[in-house]
């Protein structure tokens, strides 16, 4: 596969593919179809059809665990062991609140093993969502007044936490202390309006050089920003709704891209036949190994 060329990794018809995460130890890529509550697992070296597990509720994001995965489902955070029944680690405090019903959305673990996960407003417009942190069994709200929590990532030097409220079309960065898990005052780091980029920032990943790769939902492209927040690359994808990226493969130089069909009518699906599939692109830069959940 030529560097920079995007092609199909697995042809699928996902409603809202999301949260790809690569396990270096297992050489396995995991991802979710949020709306259908599906969790996929696939080993590229083996090929074939990915395995699929049905959770019975929407699942916003996945994280690695010592045995199996951790999933932030609509109603709460679950441990999914390789063998055995799911274990509930925490309830979603916004799921049962009257007039809300906000489900969990984007998230990932920091280098200390904490799970950071945000919610999405049920109407995708009201500032009733938030960003949370699950640390040693306690779930605490860290950033309030969010509409669509997304784009969570950490700089390789562990000094910055990146986050976006997608509808703002801005990516913020927060000074971050990995030892204590504390955040400083956020600042606008990337402004899509100023850069005249289409769509909204969705899921993201950071490479070994500290550059931030963002999927622009409704923007039909993957963009790469330098540590200084400068746009350094754009990669059009063959569908309008890429959702998130993850580095994987034996050398961590394959960028996997999840996509969605949820906002496409029949005409749109016919025009974009690869929408809903898992895509891949070889890159000239190495990604970072994904931290696991530390309990």
Please give the domain count: 1
Biggest pleated-sheet summary = 5 strands, antiparallel
- How many beta-strand elements? 25
What's the end-to-end separation, in Å?
A: 38 Å
Summarize model confidence as the mean pLDDT.
96
CATH class: Mainly Beta
Helical percentage: under 10%
Derived from helix and strand composition plus strand pairing, the structural class reads mainly beta
Overview of the structural elements:
- It contains two helices and 25 strands.
- It has 295 residues and is mainly beta.
- It has a single domain (6-282), classed as TolB, C-terminal domain (Neuraminidase, 6 Propeller), CATH 2.120.10.30.
- Strands 14, 15, 16, 17 and 18 form a five-stranded antiparallel sheet that branches. Strands 1-25-24-23 form a four-stranded antiparallel sheet, with no helix packed on it. A four-stranded antiparallel sheet has the order 2-3-4-5, with no helix packed on it.
How would you summarize the topology of this molecule?
Blueprint: E1 6-10, E2 17-23, E3 28-33, E4 38-42, E5 51-54, E6 59-64, E7 69-73, E8 76-80, E9 87-91, E10 103-109, E11 115-120, E12 129-135, E13 138-146, E14 149-154, E15 160-165, E16 170-177, E17 182-183, E18 187-191, H1 192-195, E19 200-206, E20 212-217, E21 221-225, E22 231-236, E23 242-248, E24 254-259, H2 266-271, E25 278-282
Antiparallel strand pairs: 1-25, 2-3, 3-4, 4-5, 6-7, 7-8, 8-9, 10-11, 11-12, 12-13, 14-15, 15-16, 16-17, 16-18, 19-20, 20-21, 21-22, 23-24, 24-25
